[in-house]
# Entry
Amino acid sequence: MAEVRAIAAASDYDVLAKWSSPSFDAVTRSVIARRLATPPPRRFLSETQFEVLEAACARLLATPRGKPPIANAVDDDLDAGRGEGFRRPDAPPLGTTWRTGLDGLDAEARHRHQDRSFAALDGATQDALLHALQRGDVDPSRFGAVGPRRFFSEVLLKAVAGHYYSRPDAWNEIGFGGPASPRGYVRIGLDQRDPWEAPFAPAARGKP
# Structure
């Protein structure tokens, strides 16, 4: 977790420049347009649960709170009943897992920090709590059957990262060409790229 960073594109690459090209068909354009549209309002999570999720997204992604609206996307999935289509035998329904996990993170924050909610803490303190959640160094009874470590890695982090990297601004940031339907990717060998992909950045190779 880091302080807020600028979302930098790879060079001046803009994946949306392919909007009217053979790379994007009508279905692809409609999916991307939904991701770029005004985020849906909170409908599933409580106000406090949503604030905890929004604050956690900001720390995990090092972005301003609510920008991009990842918490809204997660809440919309939960309200619509969208998910991976499976869950572990010992896991409750996904909506229950999210509500329990977010309540657990907030309860842990209030227990450690004089009844201050997770969303009200400063960034460094939020980071410390998220690291504790990742390690399982929290009260496990607050997190139900899934437990703190699984909630962090298999629910929270997975959903936040998945939604973030489904967005064109994140594709620009990492130089990803996005969907290629119906054109497809052709040059897929080592050190090869199609001409409509982001340019190589050889000077950056080998650097952390």
